[in-house]
Amino acid sequence: MAKRCRVCNGAAQIKRPKTGDIMCKECFYYAFEEEIHHTVLAGKLFTAGETVAIGASGGKDSTVLAHVMTVLNERHNYGLNLILLSVDEGITGYRDDSLETVKINQQEYGLPLKIVSYQELYGWTMDSIVQQIGLKNNCTYCGVFRRQALDRGAMLLKVDKIVTGHNADDIAETVIMNVLRGDIARLRRCTAVTTGTDGALPRCKPFKYTYEKDIVMYAFHKNLTYFSTECIYSPNAYRGFARAYIKDLERIQPSAIIDIIHSGESLCVKKDVRMPVQSTCSRCGYISSNELCKACVMLEGLNKGRPRLGIGKTHKERRLFNEELARQAAEAAATNCDETTTTTTTTTTFTNGKVCCGGKGACGSMGGSGQAPEMCGSNLQSKSESDCVGSVSPSGGGGVAECANSLKKVRIGVPTAKPNLLEF
Amino acid sequence: MVLPYRTEVFRFYAILTGKLQCVKCRRDVPVVVTRVNDAFCQDCFLVYAVHKFRSAIGKSKVIVPKEHVLVAYSGGPASSALLHFLQEGKKEGKLRFTVTVVHIDELALVSVSDKERQEKVQEVVEIVQQRGFPLLLTSLECAMDMVKPEAGESSQAPEMCKEVTSEKEVDALANPDKGDKLKKLLDSLPSISAKEEFIRVLRNQVLLGVARERGFTKVVVGDTATALSVRIMTDMAKGKGSQVSFDTTIGDKRYGDVMVVRPIRDLNMKEVEAYNRLQNVESISIPHIADQWHKSNSIEQLTAHFIHGLQENFPSTVPNIVRTSDKLGHQDIESLPEKCSLCESPLDTDVGEASALRAVEVCERLLQKDGASRSQSQAAQSSDCTQHDRVAADNMKASLCYGCRLTVKGLRDVSLLPTHVVQKSQSRCLSRDEMRAQISEFLLDDENGDTPNS
Fold first, then answer.
1. Residues of A in contact with B329 (CB under 8 A)
2. B191, B331, B368 ranked by CB distance to A268: nearest
3. Per-residue pLDDT averaged across A248-257, rounded?
4. Which of A405, A400, A376, A373 is nearest to A389 (CA)?
5. Is residue A417 scored above 50 in pLDDT?
6. Which of A43, A423, B120, B122 could be bridged to A193 by S-S, CB 3.0 to 4.6 A?
């Protein structure tokens, strides 16, 4: 028995993931596009005559975004000038493939394309960053750098707005992640359909209420080409937990994703909660809620071989860094120089590939943690400097020789070689 | 060999070799390790737990001296610990308010024989009498025809609860009619998540109903930090984000006349279990309909599984979530005129154009875009329900908050809902927006919607 489309009663080919309705392709396309159009109207996203940059990564969201924006721009006369803007993070085997897709998009829709890369903006590619920092906090780097990269590229092109392909699943994941991490400032901002209206270039999310599965369904039936692989560095991201939870939720109740977004929108922060104040970075002039923007802090950390400067408690890292620099200057002529270098060659990484805690400081009276960084979460103050555990900087030499500890090593190290262990 | 720090084996080893000491007295052998690696000896732990309980009540000043409060007891470990805290406080003369315990019997939903039901209730009675507090017994189905007593009028409605003065007098509050009504309603709710949410809301309504009938202004419940974190995430997943701040605060004032107090919200489940173990506190295991639900079909079970899993690897998860909810607030209660007819929380459906709620409505509207299908879909609907039913359903929907709308979605016959809910939905005042919508074509107004003076 053939199923009939819920709307037009013709032959149905699909069951819509968002609502479970049986529909034919044409009605689905119409519903899909018109819902996005409604989001644009309700959120007052655009005004006629604006130049809008489409953040294009070559993945399904940005490909469908380029397509739908072109369609709606024509159908409803938005009067927008659309440009494709792409960011090259320098991830071999992932980003260079997806950029090819963006070039195909450029030709299909006849839109101008601009590519900005981390290499030219910051002097670092994600591959080299991951070599420094490992696989745990690399997503932080990529995210912060990409945000700035998009803005800088957009400013070069002199656009009025940026649109990104963040879909309902992304926003729901962000809401859940911010609740789990206690990030109240982001929690309040993340459900807005347009962000960054004060000061920086505004960026909108027309796909805010569009389900990821709907996007895939649309792209599949319209034969839109896109590149679909997970970023090779992403499996350990914290967002993965939120994503798994949301996928399970969707299986039980498909409306859960929109419900989470509604919950996020209904949240109201208490008046006396301290919120970050927006100002500009003293070094690069970008917007920032601290004196230095996160990208500057991270870059400094990378360039000086202390990649964890941007992760965790910045002021603590900086204090340790300054102390260490002072000590280095004092020890510059010391004869122990050779021995310190030997100590550093006995670095250990653990069997799971992680390096030691990265100067988070003490592990208390045990004299060194000996466990992988994500477990070493204690906030106890160091008893003595030698208890402190440092990070291994694979960029090695450069005077920043730090020791890694395992329980065993410290016991050997502490009694005889106190001056050898570079103390921070 | 490097042992992972947080496992029990390591702790045992550390305690044995004297490396881990009680963090308070640093003298005695630790018996409990809470949070990541805070070890306590027995005495210090008990002091810690009791202190958490007493300071939660004391600092927040939610209960004033000489007040009569109602304490909800389910038989589970958390509420058993709560009763024990109260009993100890009373023994030491530090309890400044008087306590009456209420137990809600939910066995109507499970197929147990009357005799078994009687036995379970008997167990509850014994424990509460051991603690030395008066007991009120009620059942979940009593909420099906609750009527809020008008001020000054004598209530014609059946009593919500019975006092239990002696052990001999216990007869189960099984009321087969109401029980069947409840079961029929639950069977009509299409999804398990809807059922569990409905049961939870109904339980709350029963507590409020008993409190109002007997004149209590405070209801004390035994929500632990772990339970609260699961509650927060479930609320988020079910569209009840506006209620998160109410559901987790120590003094929940949303109902106006009755405040819900949560004094053990600073203790997590492990600490409560440790306390029960050390103090030999008994809890009763009562069969519940939720036992048959699984994380593959119940949102609450899925969320609990998720949080507990995260907590294993990231022990700061539960404190983080609870702390986040502490920072959340709500609009001024007085300025929110309408409450949901089902859960009595302020309505969260008065949102702007650019919102998830509108997006959902647009989605539904687009389905009826083509005229050809409309008559067909309407014809299909009319075979199931009359015009009257549809109006009733629309009224009901408008009187519910977003989360409760989800709960009753798919319920064909809204008259199956409890009496007080149906009544409230019928007699609600039209909001100004609805009034405006009705007369919009006749309003010669400017953008603000203000009518010009004639």
1. 268-271
2. B331
3. 92
4. A405
5. no
6. A43
Vertex A231 angle, CA A226 and A237, to 5°:
135
B89-102 residue pLDDT tens: 999 988 899 999 99
DSSP B148: P
Report the complex ipTM. 0.85
B176 three-state secondary structure: helix
For residues A368-382, average pLDDT: 39
Q: What is the pTM assigned to this prediction?
A: 0.79
Establish if B23 touches chain A: CB-CB under 8 angstroms.
no
| Closest alpha carbon to A380 in A357, A391, A358, A364 | A364
Return the number of CB contacts < 8 Å for A and B: 177
Cβ-based contacts of A255 with chain B (< 8 Å): 360, 406
The answer to whether the CB of A233 falls within 8 A of the CB of A184 is no
> Residue A194's beta-bridge partner residues?
A204
Q: Is the pLDDT of residue A215 over 90?
A: yes
Which region holds residue B385: left if phi is over 0, alpha if psi is between -120 and 50, else beta? beta
- The average pLDDT across A303-325 equals 75
Q: Which of residues 330-369 of A touch B (CB under 8 A)?
A: 366, 369
Q: Chain A contacts of B302, Cβ < 8 Å?
A: 245, 248-249, 252
Residue B262, classed as helix, strand or coil, is: coil
Residue A365 backbone dihedrals phi, psi, to 5 degrees: -70, -10
Q: Is the pLDDT of residue A347 over 50?
A: no
- Cβ contact (<8 Å) for B235 and A269? no
Closest CA to B205 of B139, B280, B151: B139
User: Within the 168-207 window of chain A, which residues sit less than 8 Å (CB to CB) from chain B?
Assistant: 175-176, 178-182, 184, 187, 193
How many CB atoms are closer than 10 A to CB A76? Answer: 13
Tens of pLDDT along A317-334? Answer: 777 777 887 888 888 766
